Here is the input.
Amino acid sequence: MTSADLIALSPLIALAGLSIVTMLGIAVHRGHAVTAGLSVLACVLTFATLPWAAGVAPRAVTTLLIIDRYALLYMGLFLAATIAVIAWSYGYLAVHVEDLEEREEFYLLLLLGTLGALVLSASAHLVSFFLGIELIGVSLYSLIGYLRARRAPLEAAMKYLLLSGSASAFLLFGMALLYFDAGGMSFRDLGAGSFGRGAGPLRTAGVVLILVGVGFKIGLVPFHLWMPDVYQGAPAPVTAYVATVSKGAVFALLLRFVTDLQVGQSAALGHLLALLAAGSMIAGNLLALLQTNVKRLLAYSSIAHFGYALVALLAGGPVAAEAVTFYLTAYFVMTLAAFGVVTLQSDGQRDADEFEDYRGLFWSRPWLAAAFMLALLSLAGIPVTVGFVGKFYAIAAGVDAGLWLLVFLLVANSAVGVYYYLRLIVILFEQPAPVRGPLLVTVNPAAWTAALSLGLVVSLLLWLGGYPQPFIEVIRDAVTGVGTMVGVSRLAPPP
Here is the structure.
């Protein structure tokens, strides 16, 4: 291990070390505000190491990890999302957890889950792939059921535990088949016998099983059945974390895995991915039409959005990497904004997850209603929002690759999505409803912290929608590194 390797690994080392410091801090002195502050400081200091690591990137650290600009960009995205979740969790836990001695471990679990996300973004080996995905999963088991005195979080945690365990079994079986066939576990070794040169049935079966496991983790159709229940039952900040950091890390890994193994050179696997994309877009939007629960609506919306992102991934080539990265960034921003409003609107008894909780919100909390409206409009892909630019990128990538059927489904399903988003927006302006919980214009520090973080996220939503060019240049520079470190190939078009 050289000094350059240690510099490249500095984000992972920093977050792991600061997680231990946070754990020891909890053991020495329990304090909700202190632990939350330590958690934010851990993310900020880890974020500060990213430019240092970029100075030696791209660099392969053993066969397990590749630290390149692509990985560092996603690390920054995951850390920023975690900071927003911590900001909302502080006020949320102060209201929802009555026992003062049961709040601090929540932040430790968030840091450990984010560490797993950082490992996934840099994974170049099946071992680091599995370690990263399990580190996230184990943290989420506890985070989802953290409010253990309530039935819904415990039920959601049990469902996630069982189905995530099943997904891990599929992943391990697929990895075993790939290792048996190729005799190696690094993505490079597995990609040496590409599908274009007639890979055998064992390799194809192994990749299919891994795609099934990844489909469970991301929530692609038909592996999506856990998502609405888990989204509804989990605490609102945890739902935001599951929807962004957890799923985004797995999708970032999927892009590297698919391109390095040259999966697109197999027509059968290309068609399988196309079916997953089409099914997710169609089922996600149609099922969202039936919802009257905000969390469940956002769950089905998430299924559809990852179907859109999969269309961009199917395009292949540097354009696909650029489109996927921008789309995931856009998804992070608008999803965090939506769940931030849900978190701030919730009171001490339950989460504000029913449509009725938002009826007339504009007349009682206009700024909160405005933030929610902008998030929903962005999810719908309305111009001058980051969601519009993200969908434009996905469509452009699909057109460039000639994926006309998937592009048509993307456009048609986006039109369907506009209806259920607008249906919720209309409720915001209907007859005023009684204000639930304390107004956020008080001097409550937790409320101000959450309101400030939500304001920053909404500002980012508008900035990336109106002037995305600087960030696009950053993404373009990052994915250029992926093209050299990972053999990017063009995926076969669907039938």
Remarks:
- The beta strands are 59-61, 65-67.
- The radius of gyration is 21 Å.
